[in-house]
Design brief:
The longest helix is centred in the last third of the chain and has 36 residues, at about 300-335. It contains eleven helices and four strands; from the N terminus they run αααβαβαββαααααα. It is elongated, with a radius of gyration of 45 Å. By secondary structure, it is an alpha/beta fold. It has a four-stranded mixed β-sheet. It has a domain at about 55-120 and about 125-295. The chain has helices spanning about 1-10, 15-40, 55-60, 95-115, 175-195, 235-240, 250-265, 270-290, 300-335, 345, 355-370, and strands at about 85-90, 135-140, 205-210, 225-230. Keywords: Membrane, Signal, Transmembrane, Transmembrane helix.
Length: about 375
């Protein structure tokens, strides 16, 4: 009887109750979606500028196609406002702020000296320095993956195969020193082209790998010290090529020498200062001796050497012919002096009238003697 009364007291379900529950669930889902969108908007590090989730640390170390641009200070881990003026990026937070401050102070001093030296005709935006553009890209390690990089990659064509690059590993082809150096150079080149620091290819990018790949370690006792790769624009390459001699090193050779110093225990701060000093010295010399292509001579140096050699040979041949003719003439005169006796009488016909009269009288006397019986 009590159960019957309870059942009678409970209202019978109607069609409005399921509809109310459905509206309640729909409203709750919308709130959750809005909250997630708000958190995504307020957290720029969660989304990459490529329209996809931020790449992993290994993916950044394997392909330059996802390496952050310096304009994204959050992804580049650049906290100080002064550093944002320069092209510096450290997505792995591989170096300290003290080391980054050394770079910024050195660039401040360098651009203060070269503030009035402009290389491109276009005006630099936002009061940027108009000398050569330097960029520093840092990596904790470099993973030369099989599908991470190709020689055809550039700023316009840089695909990302996220399926194959989900867990990038070192490809066997890059286990040699030469192949890994090529991978590092191509990595730096693509990053430089994507950054587009310069207006007329006057940019220079240093890619600093904090853990030197084992293929580039000459002495295992020194450990995995940092390693620097460099990539320069076409204008930088063109201006520095004409001053390279046996005594002057190329830009790549300067970096290789500093890599050896890093392996022997030099600090990064000392190498940064030495690197920028050497590059500034060589670039200044290139600017001072630079001349326009239209004033250049199209005749190479080896051609001048060939012409000089031919001229010297012709001179020796002419001298030899003169000596041969002189020797032959003297020899012929000595051979005829004892046999030709009539040349003494012929000499008498040349001279003044007195001499000719004497010779004629001698001939007449000889002729008269022959006619006597």
């Amino acid at each position: 009887m009590r159960a019957y009364l309870i059942m009678r007291a409970t209202p019978a379900p109607t069609c409005a109750q399921p509809l109310f529950l459905l509206l309640f669930v729909w409203h709750s889902v919308n709130k959750l979606v809005d909250a997630a969108a708000t958190r995504t908007t307020n957290a720029p590090s969660a989304l990459a500028q490529y329209g996809s989730p931020a790449p992993s640390s290994d993916l950044i170390a394997a392909t330059p196609c996802v390496y952050p641009l310096p304009s994204n200070s959050v992804r580049c881990s650049i906290d100080e406002a002064h550093l944002r003026r320069y092209n510096v990026c450290d997505p792995h937070r591989a170096v300290s702020m003290t080391e980054l401050s050394v770079i910024s102070k050195k660039l401040d001093h360098l651009y203060l000296q070269k503030d009035d030296t402009c290389l491109c005709r276009q005006e630099t935006p936002n009061n940027e320095p108009c000398w050569y553009k330097f960029g520093f890209a840092f990596l904790k390690r470099l993973i030369p993956a099989d599908a991470g990089l190709s020689d055809d990659y550039s700023s316009q064509y840089c695909p990302i195969n996220r399926t194959n690059m989900a867990r990038p590993t070192e490809a066997p082809i890059y286990r040699s020193r030469k192949m890994l150096e090529h991978y590092g150079y191509q990595f730096a080149r693509v990053v430089r082209e994507r950054w587009a620091m310069g207006q007329c290819n006057e940019d220079i990018l240093f890619l600093i790998v904090m853990e030197r790949p084992k293929q580039l370690v000459k002495n295992k006792a020194n450990g995995q010290q940092p390693y620097i790769f460099v990539s320069v624009g076409s204008l930088v390459q063109e201006r520095t090529d004409h001053i390279v001699t046996r005594e002057t090193k190329t830009l790549e050779q300067l970096v290789n020498a500093l890599n050896d110093k890093l392996e022997h225990g030099y600090t990064l701060n000392a190498v940064y200062e030495r690197l920028l000093d050497q590059y500034a010295e060589m670039l200044t010399l290139a600017d001072q001796t630079w001349y326009k292509p239209k004033n250049r001579s199209h005749v190479p140096d080896w051609a001048f050497m060939v012409f000089a050699g031919c001229a010297a040979l012709l001179g020796l041949m002419a001298l030899g012919l003169c000596l041969m003719k002189t020797g032959v003439r003297r020899g012929s005169q000595r051979g005829k002096s004892g046999t030709d006796t009539q040349r003494r009488w012929k000499a008498g016909f040349v001279g003044e009238n007195g001499g000719e009269k004497t010779v004629n009288q001698v001939h007449m006397f000889i002729a008269g003697a022959r006619n006597q019986p």
